[in-house]
UniProtKB/TrEMBL annotation:
Organism: Paractinoplanes atraurantiacus
InterPro entries membership: AAA+_ATPase, ABC_transporter-like_ATP-bd, ABC_transporter-like_CS, P-loop_NTPase, Siderophore_ABC-ATPase
Spans annotated as Disordered: 1-50
Biased composition (Low complexity): 16-38
Membrane topology: Peripheral membrane protein
Entries under SUPFAM superfamilies matching the protein: P-loop containing nucleoside triphosphate hydrolases
Gene3D superfamilies: P-loop containing nucleotide triphosphate hydrolases
GO molecular function: ATP binding; ATP hydrolysis activity
Lineage, broadest ranks: Bacteria, Bacillati, Actinomycetota, Actinomycetes, Micromonosporales
Keywords: ATP-binding, Cell membrane, Ion transport, Iron, Iron transport, Membrane, Nucleotide-binding, Transport
Name the record gives this protein: Iron complex transport system ATP-binding protein
Subcellular location: Cell membrane
């Protein structure tokens, strides 16, 4: 399958999943997970495809510093993005650090989610290009892109009654074709993804019956089963209370550390971005105004310029990362 010519390119499941097209799910009743309590570790040998393997050793990248860098796999060059006649992003260049967590921050309407959609091949640039491993992403076969990049949009919605197991199974769709249908390896990968995210006990529960935090873990399970090396998350903590926000971001951090995934996420909470991201990209009016470590980006001057916020920036007593403390607005 080659790229479509229209503006929106569905490399991954979009915000509303289809109601189980046949090509997404195998004919076998695989939604019911095997009864064995244990999930074997990283690599399943039943197929040349690895399971949710721990790839090469993770990049030793501290929150405030960088170790040996790797060549970026995902890049944007001269991006011009918009909807209809409205241009949202114009002339943007960006390299996504490989093997790291990148947080994109900025005020509402600055183009954060639009940029993420372009990086995920869900929005065709008006001009410029997104490159994956040196190739224009819009020229690559859809399945090939979907095996490398996974994307979770804001507040994704599953079809009514779809179980957690069925949702996670859909992550295996890019690995299916007419000649390779559902296999024991796929089932093992799905089971392991559920175990890894602590969702095994909820596998037969409908997604729409879950709490917000459980629902996000279910979607991350699907992305994990997809086996992509790059994961794009659009505001993964939206509508969650603080405790569940920490749970989700701890899971994302663990996914990076233990599975060596490259992660790009849009966040509104600057303190959570500083705590979890190795690289921060600050946007305003469709352009990047600063990027680097949280220490270099979250300055008093930038907070005033980008967010119109008078604030102090002090070390977080728990982590040592920058902590933004807004000052009272004068009455």
């Amino acid at each position: 399958m080659t790229a479509a010519n229209d503006e929106h390119l569905p490399a991954q499941p979009t915000e509303h999943l289809p109601a189980q097209p046949a090509e997404h799910l195998p004919a076998q009743p695989a939604a019911h997970l095997p009864a064995q309590p244990a999930v074997r570790s990283a690599t399943v040998q039943a197929s040349p495809e690895p399971a949710i393997s721990a790839p090469a050793p993770a990049l030793a990248l501290g929150r405030a510093g960088a170790a040996e860098s790797r060549e970026p796999r995902l890049r944007a060059r001269g991006l011009r993005l918009g909807y209809g006649e409205d241009i949202v992003v114009d002339g943007l260049d960006l390299d996504i650090p490989d093997g790291a967590i990148t947080a994109v921050v900025g005020p509402n309407g600055c183009g954060k989610s639009t940029l993420l959609r372009a990086l995920g091949r869900l929005l065709r640039p008006r001009d410029g290009e997104v490159l994956l491993d040196g190739q224009r992403i819009d020229k690559m076969p859809t399945r090939e892109v979907a095996r490398i990049i996974g994307m979770l949009p804001q507040s994704p919605v599953a079809p009514d009654g779809l179980t957690v197991a069925d949702l996670v199974m859909r992550g295996r769709h890019p690995h299916q074709n007419w000649f390779r249908q559902w296999s024991p390896t796929d089932q093992s990968i799905v089971t392991e993804a559920l175990e890894w995210t602590d969702m095994r006990e909820l596998a037969e529960r409908p997604v729409d019956a879950l709490s917000g935090g459980q629902r996000q873990r279910a979607w991350i399970s699907m992305a994990l089963a997809q086996g992509t090396e790059v994961l794009l998350l659009d505001e993964p903590t939206t509508y969650l209370d603080l405790s569940h926000q920490i749970d989700v971001l701890d899971l994302v951090d663990r996914l990076h550390r233990e599975r060596d995934r490259t992660i790009v996420m849009v966040l509104h909470d600057l303190n959570l971005a500083a705590r979890y991201a190795h690289h921060v990209v600050a946007m305003k009016d469709g352009r990047i105004v600063a990027q680097g470590t949280a220490e270099s980006v979250f300055t008093v001057e930038l907070l005033a310029d980008v967010f119109g916020l008078a604030a102090l920036v002090v070390p977080d007593p728990a982590t040592g990362t920058p902590l933004v403390v807004p000052l009272p607005r004068s009455s």
